[in-house]
Amino acid sequence: SSEPVPICCSAVFRPPLQFPGLRRVLLPDRRSAGSADRVSTNKIMILLRKGLLDCIRRSQPRVLFKTAQHEKHTLPDLPYDYGALEPAISGQIMELHHSKHHAAYVNNLNIAEEKLKEAQAKGDIKAVISLAPALKFNGGGHINHTIFWHNLAPQSSSGSPEGELEKAIIRDFGSVENLKNQLSALAVGVQGSGWAWLGYNKQMKILQLAACANQDPLEPTTGLVPLFGIDVWEHAYYLQYKNVRPDYVKKIWEVANWKDISERFVKAKS
Question: What share of the chain has pLDDT > 70, as a percent?
Fold first, then answer.
């Protein structure tokens, strides 16, 4: 059988934040320019927050998510110590990656949301639209990393594919080894910074691979439900692997948390 064709996020690029309904809201209402701006601003505000919050809620454990509309996002705790993934990923990298990089995404996301609330209160639709890139980048960074931490586990407890997930992998990729090889090649081939993902296509009911640039979140961008992601931003590996990205990608399979991946798969199918 032919190999599945990976999805390139840029090939299915949608409006700025890529939340369903945003393009429709941006269409001008010619009945009343002033009232239309106010209505559109309110709708955009609702869509931006709802899309981002829904995506974060799906991406992290319920205990880490606060549903109150105006509560700030917080940095989730790691489910293991910083050094628990050694030798695959050093404790120094994990500490910097989590406490500095992920923390920065959370902080900047909160700042962007505060500015968004101010712009909405003023009815400033231009300011609302201009904040979309910051919300997408920092919101995506928060979503992606929250998944990433749980996608990994100490080698002694990382497990292996089994049950429904293993059957789906064999059906869609031929073997677990083929999946690893294809996703690894996709990750190594990402130009610049980004992510390589194993995702679930709910419409076609199959597993698919996708590469996303920067911090573009997988589900709002491609429609695939994220199961396992490989972060190929240099801050994820450079201190340990220098410019040899393939070595990092090869090692990450040693700490892939197959229990978490399997749970995400079962949930995505339901």
Answer: 74
